[in-house]
Amino acid sequence: MTKFKLYFWNGFGKPELVATSLTGVLRDLHVSDNYLGDVTPDIRVLVREYKASQTSKGWDNLIEELEGYNLYMNPTYNTFKNVAQQWFDDTPSNLLKEFA
Fold first, then answer.
1. DSSP letter string, 3-18
2. What is the rounded (10 degree) CA torsion for 76, 26, 86, 93?
3. Where are the alpha helices (DSSP H) in 1-100?
4. Contact assessment for residue 73 and residue 50, using Cβ atoms and an 8 Å cutoff
5. Closest CA to 30 of 15, 14, 42
6. Sign of the dihedral defined by the CA atoms of residues 67, 70, 76, 79, in that order
7. What is the CA radius of gyration of the chain?
8. Of 19, 27, 85, 90, whose CB neighbour count within 10 A is largest?
9. Inter-residue contact 6 to 19 (CB < 8 Å)
10. β-strand pairing of 16-19 with 37-38
11. pLDDT of the chain, 100 residues: tens digit per residue
12. Is 9:72 a contact under the CB 8 Å cutoff?
């Protein structure tokens, strides 16, 4: 199983480390959305589907799906820069110093 760091970032404040393993996502992560409410069960389904398949396509799909919840696996500065360009005129570099 691939280890990773999962961060939440919605552009407000610094990215927040929320899990360091798939098990941590399943056991400890709770996510609520203003419009959708508690999406924790949806995220757990995504992780379980990946764990059942263990394919690179499944991994890529998991990364893409989690990004829809503002959750980023093993992000780099460029990951956040690309996301920020969708939301802001300028990249908030001061919030992303640890990723530079």
1. ---EEE--SSSS-EEE
2. -40
3. 22-28, 40-53, 56-67, 77-87
4. no
5. 42
6. positive
7. 14
8. 19
9. yes
10. unpaired
11. 456 899 999 888 899 999 999 999 999 999 987 788 999 999 999 999 888 888 777 888 899 999 999 999 999 999 998 898 888 888 788 888 888 8
12. yes
As a whole number of angstroms, the distance between CA 83 and CA 7 comes to 13
- In which element (H, E) is residue 32 found? strand 32-33
What residues are paired with 33 via a beta bridge? Answer: 37
The amino acid that residue 41 corresponds to is P
Contacts of 64 (CB under 8 A, 6+ apart): none
What are the tokens at 31? 């996510």
Q: Are 7 and 72 in contact (CB under 8 A)?
A: yes
